[in-house]
């Protein structure tokens, strides 16, 4: 599968982070829009599989198809740039600044949200025949997910917020591992196999992914979920984004950089 050694693929991670900071606003937004749209479609697909089969594992096994598609086409998720963009600053690449990192994160957030919202509207139309009928079984399921993962957390107060945040951390530990996995091989099959594994883990475990939620919760509101837009932002999206940032950067980006780029000197045996 043309596997690259860690020192090689971590250097590619830094290169990727630098390229994202130098990318034009136009290209950053287009790539983020398409990433959000494809991942949203994959989420709708996985929920459809869950409802139709009654087996969440099958949906989790199939969900990574969207993640693989978008990364093979060179599109960007917020969860990925949380991990990659800061590495260019850590490595002191020319022109890499924290202002550039924040610019990249902001543009990717906007693009991802727009793409996911587009698919949310499309799927809400499909599930209700253009809002002329009550949501079908899949639409009802999406609405119930929105309720459980907003007001469900709120019902537990601070403990619910902590749980939400930790689920966001765990999510991007796995998702960013998937992002890095795409750099571990030079073959399409190698990239797909490597990406598939951590994405399967995150989805089946019910961790919180900020871009998937950009689809689930707006569509849930359109499909009759009993929660508000404020519930969505306060009791899901904002804590999830923060958790995703901490998880991806601390458990994947900074860790790999510290041990494979800034490698400590080897011990000298007496």
UniProtKB/TrEMBL annotation:
Any Pfam family matching the protein: Form_Nir_trans
This protein's UniProt keywords: Membrane, Transmembrane, Transmembrane helix
Recorded topology in the membrane: Multi-pass membrane protein
Major place of residence: membrane
Origin: domain of life: Bacteria
Transmembrane segments: 30-49, 61-85, 105-132, 153-175, 241-259
Compartments where located: Membrane
Family: Belongs to the FNT transporter (TC 1.A.16) family.
Protein name (Swiss-Prot/TrEMBL): Formate/nitrite transporter family protein
Provenance organism: Ideonella oryzae
């Amino acid at each position: 599968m043309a596997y690259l050694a860690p020192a090689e693929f971590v250097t590619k991670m830094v290169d990727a982070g630098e390229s994202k900071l130098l990318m034009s606003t136009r290209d950053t937004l287009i790539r983020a829009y398409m990433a959000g749209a494809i991942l949203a479609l994959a989420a709708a697909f996985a929920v459809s599989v869950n409802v139709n089969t009654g087996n969440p594992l099958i949906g989790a096994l199939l969900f990574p198809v969207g993640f693989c598609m978008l990364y093979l086409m060179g599109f960007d998720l917020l969860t990925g740039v949380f991990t990659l963009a800061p590495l260019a600053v850590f490595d002191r690449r020319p022109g890499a600044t924290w202002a550039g990192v924040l610019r990249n994160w902001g543009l990717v957030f906007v693009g991802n949200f727009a793409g996911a919202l587009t698919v949310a509207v499309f799927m809400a139309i499909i599930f209700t025949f253009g809002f002329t009928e009550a949501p079908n079984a899949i639409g009802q399921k999406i609405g119930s997910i929105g309720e459980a993962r907003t007001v469900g957390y709120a019902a537990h107060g601070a403990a619910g917020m902590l749980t939400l945040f930790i689920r966001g951390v765990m999510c991007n530990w796995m998702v960013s591992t998937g992002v890095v996995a795409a750099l571990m091989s030079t073959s399409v099959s190698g990239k797909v196999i490597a990406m598939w594994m951590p994405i399967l883990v995150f989805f089946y475990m019910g961790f919180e992914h900020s871009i998937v939620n950009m689809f689930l919760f707006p569509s849930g509101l359109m499909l009759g979920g009993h929660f508000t837009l404020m519930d969505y932002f306060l009791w899901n999206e904002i804590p999830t984004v923060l958790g995703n940032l901490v998880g991806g950067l601390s458990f994947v980006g900074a860790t790999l950089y510290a041990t494979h780029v800034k490698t400590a000197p080897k011990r000298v045996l007496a």
